[in-house]
Design a protein that fits this description.
single chain; about 150 residues; alpha+beta; SH3 type barrels; 2 domains; 5 helices
Length: about 150
Amino acid sequence: MKTTFRALVILAAVAGSVALRAEDVKWDDLCQEARSRELSLTTLDGQKSNGTCYKADATAISLKSNHGLQTVDRERITTARLDNLSRSHCIEGAVSVMFFGPFLYTQGGIVAAVLWTPFSLGAGAAASPFCAVYDLINRSTGSRKITII
């Protein structure tokens, strides 16, 4: 028990120290590095722009967000943060699998529903705890600071 606890403490310390370092990313590779993850930029005047990288050219970067397309000049960026992991909805998938069998009843597929319902309920119930832990870890990892070079 003590060995397991010590191993977890060491693992947490190493993971925490890795998360504190800023990663160097070349300006030309910024959109490729970000892919579909959210990028958060802070400008000289303190304004924050959040969104996925749409396009980066030599002088500016365009972020696609819920508010439309935002363009930020390269020389105005002071800090940049990048989400560690893309947001997952594993628990939603598990729940939808659980209710697919009963859904077949309403669509007239009685034989398929009778055969599929026990499997879908069992698979969804078995996957739910794992999905809950996965979603929790995925949402709590936050973002990492990147240095644009």
